[in-house]
Amino acid sequence: MNPFELIDILRNHTVYIQTHNFPDPDAISSAFGLQQFLDFHGICATVCYDGKVDRLSSKKMLDTFGITMYSKNELPDMTENDYIVLVDSQKLNSNVTDFIGDEVACIDHHPIFFQYHYLYQDIQKVGACASIIASYYQRTNTPILPNCAAALAYGIKMDTADFNRGTTLLDTEMLSFLFSRADWGLVTRMYTNTMEFDDLRAYGAAIQNIQIFGGTGFAYIPFDCATALIAIISDFILSLDVVDIAVIYAMQKNGIRFSLRCEQNRVHAGTLIAHVMKPWGSGGGHPSMAGGMIPSEHVHLLGEDIHVTIQDAFLNAIAEMEKELPPA
Ligand SMILES: [Mn+2]
Questions:
Q1: What is the three-class DSSP state of 248?
Q2: Mean pLDDT calculated for residue range 179-189
Q3: Among 119, 206, 265, 270, which residue has the fewest nearby CB atoms (within 10 Å)?
């Protein structure tokens, strides 16, 4: 897709850039990068999201890079005539609230689970959505400010786990493009004091009840904990040498939230969780990282011992999927 087409579509409209709910660093940096890009081309856009910016690493981004974004409750009145550009997310997915505006464009790097007709669609299989946004600057020779280049570089580093997860050539090329243009001090500042004291409780709970069956590790966090933190703990559990699939779930106010991680060459995480969640909720994601949710009203369907039900469902699905894999 040609980014100039996006500019033409958005011109003379009220524009919002929306991330997935509970935006992570890649979503935040992509939205900010696109906002600055559009701004240079004369289009003013407001960055918005639903849920919360609930992780220290995400909150810290707003201060460090000078980003302003509005949650659903703080949003000025959006109307149905306003245009929305979705970044790091796609319409109809369970992790993005359907705002009243018109989703005319989508820039994302997740697999497509639901087809939707956008006026502008740029969905590429790359490690970070921020890489796609960075490429817009390069392809159109648009100047980039040092704080914006730093934010995009941080987004790329975070979503590719420092180039260890789902990385493509575009991710590495865009990091090198951004490197010389970024205020790198801002990037390194993001790596200090990254853990909140409350995080320790969630780590502690996960460590205490972890159970491992043939390389698949399950851990349960029995209290409400930030969605992004569940994802970080699943990365942590996956780093154990005896685990190559990590299933972490936590009891939140509105249901049970899942985060799934798979090491390369086992099963496709997104397909696995979509399949397992089907009778109770929803889920999806990338080959190596995915998420899901069982809403409160369906939790009773799991029966008396929810942990046994969850473990059996995953282990059976993994066994089925592995049968279909070609022999190593
Ligand atoms: Mn992303």
A1: strand
A2: 97
A3: 265
Distance 254 CA to ligand 1 centre (A): 23
State the Cα torsion 196-208-252-161 to the nearest 10°.
60
**Ligand 1 center to 129 CA (angstroms):** 5
CA of 263 to the centre of ligand 1 (A): 18
| Residue written as token pair 């699943």 | 234
* 3-state SS class at 141: coil
Q: Is 203 helix (H, G, I), strand (E, B) or coil?
A: helix
Instruction: Determine the distance separating the centroid of ligand 1 and the alpha carbon of 91, expressed in angstroms.
Output: 15
Exposed/middle/buried for residue 199 (C-beta within 10 Å: 0-12, 13-18, 19+): middle
What's the rounded Cα separation, in Å, for the pair 12 and 41?
A: 12
How many angstroms does the Cα of residue 154 sit away from the middle of ligand 1? 12
Token code pair at residue 300: 């009773």
Confidence of residue 113 (pLDDT cuts 50, 70, 90): confident
Which residue in 169, 166, 174 sits closest to 148, CA to CA? 174
Question: Ligand 1 centre from 159 Cα, in Å?
Answer: 6
Count of residues in the chain: 328
Name residue, tokens 């780093």: 239
Structural domains of the chain ordered from first start:
3-189 (3.90.1640.10), 199-324 (3.10.310.30)
Ligand 1 centroid to Cα of residue 73, in Å, is 24
- Rounded to the nearest angstrom, the distance between the alpha carbon of 155 and the centre of ligand 1 is 8
Query: Helices marked H in 11-163 — which ranges?
Result: 25-40, 56-65, 129-140, 146-159
Q: Compute the distance from residue 128 Cα to the ligand 1 centre, in Å.
A: 5
Tell me the pTM. Answer: 0.81
Q: How high does pLDDT run on average in the chain?
A: 94
**Three-state DSSP class for 265?**
coil
